[in-house]
Specification:
The complex is a heterodimer of chains A (114) and B (113).
Chain A: E1 9-13, E2 18-23, E3 32-38, E4 45-50, E5 55-56, E6 61-64, E7 70-75, E8 84-91, E9 108-113
Chain B: E1 5-7, E2 10-13, E3 19-24, E4 31-38, E5 42-50, E6 53-57, E7 64-68, E8 74-78, E9 87-94, E10 103-104, E11 108-112
Classes of the chains: A mainly beta (114), B mainly beta (113).
């Protein structure tokens, strides 16, 4: 799986959009970008994933650059409950062996301030 | 609510003891994964089962073992516990063998005294 780089922390004002960047310059053509988040000591929560097109669901939007070397997770209207560690994970689906796992890095601690 | 349940929520035990953590996957999911999260190591993959069979192993200690039963629930057995085994243990499930999207349970916090 490709290595990802995320800023260790970010702040966002409540009600504003939170834009969380992720660099994955060594991503392969068949690798997807996944985002999970973990609110303090709770189980990680799946947010969204994509291959090359931008994706949107009820939680967030995922913007992937044309060269696929970076992506941005957008929480359009951040609330205090969005304070969490956000993990960007790149992995190839349908891959065998130990690639069934999710490899979590250190992620970005997003703090939403009132 | 992810649909994955884990029991117990908290477990306090002594060194040298053995404990069993239980996980029920989301309805219809055949894959179960176990992860350990300690303060210094972050989230680490331990092991995966698919439809009752072990399919992938991570850095799981020999003192740890797991199994998945015919009803698809899974148990993680930790024996000869050491202080360093204190951690959060998460179970996740996915519909497919390849774990494209994994849904995590609330975790079991294990404290070894």
């Amino acid at each position: 799986d490709a290595k990802t780089t995320q800023p260790p922390s970010m702040d966002c004002a409540e009600g504003r959009a939170a834009n969380l960047p992720c660099n994955h310059s060594t991503i392969s053509g068949n690798e997807y970008v996944y985002w999970y988040r973990q609110i303090h000591s709770q189980g990680p929560q799946y947010i969204i994933h994509g291959l090359k097109n931008n994706e949107t669901n009820e939680m967030a939007s995922l913007i992937i650059t044309e060269d696929r070397k970076s992506s941005t997770l957008i929480l359009p209207h951040a609330t205090l409950r969005d304070t969490a560690v956000y993990y960007c994970i790149v992995r190839a689906p349908n891959s065998g062996g130990s690639n069934y796992k999710l490899t979590f890095g250190k992620g970005t601690l997003l703090t939403v301030n009132p | 609510d992810s649909g994955v349940t884990q029991t117990p929520k908290h477990l306090i035990t002594a060194t040298g003891q053995r404990v069993t953590l239980r996980c029920s996957p989301r309805s219809g999911d055949l894959s179960v994964y176990w992860y350990q999260q300690s303060l210094d190591q972050g989230l680490q993959f331990l092991i995966q089962y698919y439809n009752g069979e072990e399919r992938a192993k991570g850095n799981i200690l020999e003192r740890f073992s797991a199994q998945q039963f015919p009803d698809l629930h899974s148990e993680l057995n930790l024996s000869s516990l050491e202080l360093g085994d204190s951690a959060l243990y998460f179970c996740a499930s996915s519909a497919s063998l390849h774990g494209d999207t994994q849904y995590f349970g609330p975790g079991t916090r294990l404290t070894v005294l």
